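Posting for a labmate who doesn't have an account.
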Amino acid sequence: MGELMSNKRLYQGVDITPPNKLNIFIAIISIAAALFLLWATTHIPNIWIKLLCIFLFSFVGNTLFGFLHETVHSSFHTNRVINYIFGNIFAAFFPTGFTFQKRCHLNHHRQNRTDFEMFEAYHDNDSKTLKTIMLYFILTGVYWTNPGIGALWLMIHPNSLINGVFSGKKSYKIGRMGGAGMLRHLEGLPKEEMLKMRLEVFFSLCFQVSLFLLLGLTWWSWLLCYAAFAFQWSGLQYSDHAYTDRDIRNGAWNLRVSKWTQYFFLNYHHHLAHHQHPHVSWLYLESFVDKSKYRPTYWEIYFRMWKGLTKVEQQAPKPMDPEFEALINSEDFSN
């Protein structure tokens, strides 16, 4: 694990200290850009400018999500409070709740390529219809609504979310659509943490309502911007895992994309490197990419998924080792 030496984190001979100032600088520019693009899509009458703003928002939105991903892994800033404050802002833009997202995402690292997350494939005892619907929800961006709906549901009535039909407790086939894997980690949490998660979701809800009031947004402009963002975001969330080996730590791709896309997404396409080294900041991920190994393009995997489900052939992955669990849980804050 990274060591704190002279205020630097050294890992495998590489200084992986989060770039605090750079992250805040890019984050503030991205937040301002996202607000402007939402406003411009509503208020500028020229249709071509509107379309350009929608297109650009789809990229800037993924920059903000990339930073949400960084805060979830405690890699945005070495100060715990700053990391948490920005994490809630990024979560509000998504929108979801910060701690809710953190628990779900870290659980994704623990169960990667297990039966819970084989969205491109099916077993004989699956509902192929339900699995197919889920696959095309991912490919078209509809999947983006799941975290938001889940967060609102958690805020309003957590027990019915955790123990309801989508938890998979009463229906294996429905649980295999993703709910069982994401929700099982919420059972038995202290009341204080559950309250914290619900308040964070409420903050995100207030934040989004404030955008409408302060920027004078319309529903159609908001929906168009977020639909474009969701299409890009959702398509990537499983393209970077589909058809990889069933291995919790190594079941991902380092996808090839244009430099433009790579930088806007904060190196998110270096996803195998991220799963192998989840505590490493986005800025240093490329140093951990093995470029001698096969690296498909994003579109190669994305369009392959459109051909439909495949049959699960490989055995389930081996359990996660303690060292990897420690990397997932790493929170090496300096203060």
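Reply:
Got it, the structure tokens are right above this. Residues 47-72 form the longest helix (26 residues).
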